[in-house]
Structure formats: structure tokens, C-alpha cells
Amino acid sequence: MFGRRKTLAKGETVYLFEPTRDFADDFLTVMRASQSFHQPWVYPASEQRRYRAYLDRIADGRAYGFMIARSEDNAFLGVININDPIFGGFRSASIGYYINADFARRGYMSEALALVLDYAFTTLQLHRLEANIQPANEASIGLVKRLGFRNEGFSPAFLQINGVWRDHERWAILAEEWLDASGLSTRQIRQKFGVVV
Hints:
Blueprint: E1 7-10, E2 14-17, H1 24-33, H2 35-38, H3 48-59, E3 63-70, E4 76-86, E5 92-99, H4 108-123, E6 128-133, H5 138-146, E7 150-161, E8 164-174, H6 175-179, H7 186-192
Parallel strand pairs: 5-6
Antiparallel strand pairs: 1-2, 2-3, 3-4, 4-5, 6-8, 7-8
């Protein structure tokens, strides 16, 4: 069903793979089924045109995309994106993520986000990542807190989502804060940050 996948990183229960055009139908099927779970927090692509635009953002360097799959059966779990990276003296980006509703609140996203943080701070050599989260999205706030992000403030009408300017809390983590855990296994990282699968 899922075709060939180029693996980008492996954890204990999940792996990250590269988004491709071949994966469009599977991606769209899962995202359409999860729409009521995702909204109003995020509006993933639900049609071919928007999925192609997502791949174009990755191809032209405006984002790094990571699809998440469960290792035991290759089930598609969700997506994490590193958005709008700026290099030079800034070396920062924001992250966004969403999960298949059928696999939410099982710890998969925590492990996958830990893998993406490793990639961002080692392979890309970013200095800072920010997660901008709507204040009522308690699950997302809990996720970034577990992984060591700190709240840096509140921004009214910060991001436009589905045509509406929405308030957001700004959560961030620095490379040195995350890499303090470097050298740990995925299991040790999960234990350090209280992630349970």
C-alpha cells in the first residue's frame, strides 16, 4: 500500500521517511479521515493540489518534511515539518506536526519529534527551534513541554490558519539544551523526558 520509502531516521518504535509524490494517495486518505481531530489546530493537505504544494515547499528549501511510520507494521502515523529555516547567523526555524487520529496519545509523536530534533540540531546545525501553539491545544503544549521546550511568550493574532488570524504561545528549545541529552539512546531520551509508548 505504501510503496517505497527513503528512511531518514530510525527510533525504537517509529521511523521517519521522505515525503514523495508516490505517497500522495495514502497521505490524503489518512488526513481526510483525521480532519475533525486536527481542526482547528492544523489543516493538512486534503487534496492533490495542496499535497503537491507541500512537496514544492520541501523541494525549494522552505521546509524539511518528515513522514512518520510505525516500525512494526509500517503504519503511517503523521508528519513533522521544520518550517522556514533561516541559516547564517540566525540558524533558526519553526516546527509543525500532526498525527493520524487513530494513533494519537500513544507516545509515537514524542519519539518522532525527538528524532527530528536530533536531525535539526546535528545534520542541519540549527541553533533554535520554535513551536507556535494555540493556547487551547493542551496535547501539543504537553508534547513540547515533555521534550524540554520552554514557553517564551504569547503572541496575539500570530499565525493565519484556515483564513483566521489565531493567537499562539511561543515555545522554543536551543541546540545546547537538546544536545545535553546527546549520546543517549532513544529509550533513554524517552525516559529523560517522560515519554511513554
